[in-house]
Amino acid sequence: MESSCGKGFELFCFLLILFVNHVFCIEGGTNFNWNSTVTGSAHPSPLPVETSFKFPSPLPVIPLDGRNFGKGKIDLGDLEVIQVSISASTSQRVWTTYEGGPDSMGISIFEPINLPPGFFTLGFYAQPNNRLLFGWVLVA
Fold it and tell me: From which residue to which does the signal peptide run (predicted)?
């Protein structure tokens, strides 16, 4: 028997996919074909989303002042959250379509992985396939 939490998560994922489909179909002016969704298969040519964004030079180091600035965690009462970057090493693609969206290249949804101990995923990251992979999610 499936738990109510599992059913709620499935409903959340379904609604997220419907929302993303709606947003990208309106923006791209195309109709979405559910039969064209592909999970884990190769596209004829590499898409920009398959390449992680890289800064042209290293980021500067911000000195710690001995307090909480720059520690990377925010305490929201009893809930501690951190920001996790989305890249090939910190996420896995869980859903892809190659139609619709900007430039009719489709979209991909990524799940954060390798989270710090004690932190859990609050949501997934969605991005059009016509851009280099670059984004953030909050985990708690």
Answer: 1-25
- Contacts of residue 53, defined as CB under 8 A and 6 or more positions apart, other chains included, come to 132, 133, 134
Rounded distance between C-alpha atoms, residue 114 and residue 61, angstroms: 24
Query: What is the per-residue pLDDT for 31?
Result: 47
Token digits for 95? 């859903």
**Spatial contact of 51 and 132, defined as CB atoms under 8 Å apart:** yes
Which tokens hold the place of 109? Answer: 């949804």
Picking from 66, 28, 53, the residue whose alpha carbon sits closest to that of residue 133 is 53
CA distance 123 to 48: 23
Task: Please compute the mean of the pLDDT values over residues 46-69 and round it to a whole number.
Answer: 70
Query: Residue 106: which of 91, 117, 96 has the closest Cα?
Result: 96
95 residue type, one letter: W
Poorest-confidence range of 14-28, 72-86, 87-101?
14-28
Among candidates 17, 21, 18, which has minimal Cα distance to 101?
21
CA 35/CA 100 separation, integer angstroms: 13
Q: Which residue has the higher pLDDT, 100 or 52?
A: 100
